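User: I've been trying to design a sequence by hand for this structure and keep getting stuck. Would you show me what you'd pick, starting by listing the structure so we're on the same page?

Assistant: Good idea, let's start from the same input. This is the structure you sent:
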């Protein structure tokens, strides 16, 4: 009987000990074995001002470079048009965007704290060119007032929100006293600079305005038939393209992250083959610092023609 009682007591003690011992938690165990959480990617994009294939090549290479420099995942997300780039930046879907002068201002005005951080060395002295179909009879223009020669001819801009393909060309036309209704029929708005070049070359429009850098690049690439299309005027200089970064990145990656991104862009070196390829695709020799105030004139002109309210 004593043996039975003793066995019962030992059994009860064993059960009590088991109940008091913390059970191994599957959740706790998996926490130790799981890989560290991956940071949300830095999402880059750009206004679609050229052929999509070229943009994909450029920004994929840039994303790879930035990923190595910043030590965070970086992805390139193409957008359908200029307005989509501004909207995606506004709602936080895009962190770092290559904007034109006008779209950069539009984006920053809708995102308090957004900063213009870098531009190409050429972007403080940027130009538009006016091109014509050789059958139009239009001759080279030496003075801005001679833009009146375009009256009565068909004309196309680039995208409606393009700085070099619409905003500044329309501003210069206005200075010369040329209104949109002075052109023959309705003015066109092509999707991008390449499209403007194609339309004028084909004779769909007698004249058009586009980014000078795109024009010179296509000349070098042998994609311009100069028997069909020619430049008749080069505009005065103005500020244009630049990188704009969303302030939300500071919460995700730290207070110094904006400076790190800026430093990575300024670090691109034409002496390094892989980086030279990126700069060549940007038609630049380097990136330099910029700031929001550089685009005050763009904002003023944008308000004048109703693209900024």
């Amino acid at each position: 009987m004593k043996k039975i009682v003793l066995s019962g007591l030992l059994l009860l003690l064993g059960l009590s000990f088991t109940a008091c011992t913390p059970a191994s938690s599957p959740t706790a165990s998996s926490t130790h074995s799981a890989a560290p959480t991956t940071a949300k990617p830095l999402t880059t994009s750009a206004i679609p001002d050229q052929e999509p294939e070229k943009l994909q090549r450029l920004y994929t290479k840039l994303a790879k470079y930035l990923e190595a420099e910043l030590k965070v995942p970086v992805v390139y997300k193409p957008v359908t048009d200029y307005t989509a780039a501004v909207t995606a930046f506004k709602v936080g879907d895009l962190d770092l965007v290559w904007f034109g002068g006008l779209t950069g201002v539009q984006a920053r005005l809708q995102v308090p704290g957004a900063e213009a951080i870098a531009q190409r060395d050429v972007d403080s002295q940027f130009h538009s060119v006016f091109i014509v179909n050789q059958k139009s009879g239009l001759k080279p223009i030496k003075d801005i007032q001679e833009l009146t020669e375009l009256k009565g001819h068909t004309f196309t801009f680039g995208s409606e929100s393009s700085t070099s393909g619409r905003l500044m060309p329309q501003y210069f036309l206005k200075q010369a006293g040329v209104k949109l209704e002075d052109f023959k029929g309705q003015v066109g708005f092509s999707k991008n600079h390449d499209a403007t070049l194609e339309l004028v070359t084909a004779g769909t429009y007698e004249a058009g305005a586009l980014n000078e850098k795109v024009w010179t690049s296509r000349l070098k690439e042998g994609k311009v038939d100069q028997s069909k299309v020619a430049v008749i005027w080069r505009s005065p200089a103005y500020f244009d393209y630049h990188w704009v970064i969303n302030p939300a990145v500071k919460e995700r990656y730290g207070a110094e992250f904006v400076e790190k991104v800026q430093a990575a862009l300024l670090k691109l070196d034409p002496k390094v083959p892989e980086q030279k390829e990126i700069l060549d695709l940007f038609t630049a020799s380097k990136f330099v610092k910029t700031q929001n105030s550089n685009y005050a004139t763009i904002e003023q002109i944008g308000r004048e023609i109703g693209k900024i309210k």
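That's my pick for every position. To get oriented when you compare it with your attempt: Residues 60 and 76 are 6 Å apart (CA to CA). Residues 128-234 form a domain with the D-Maltodextrin-Binding Protein; domain 2 fold (CATH 3.40.190.10).
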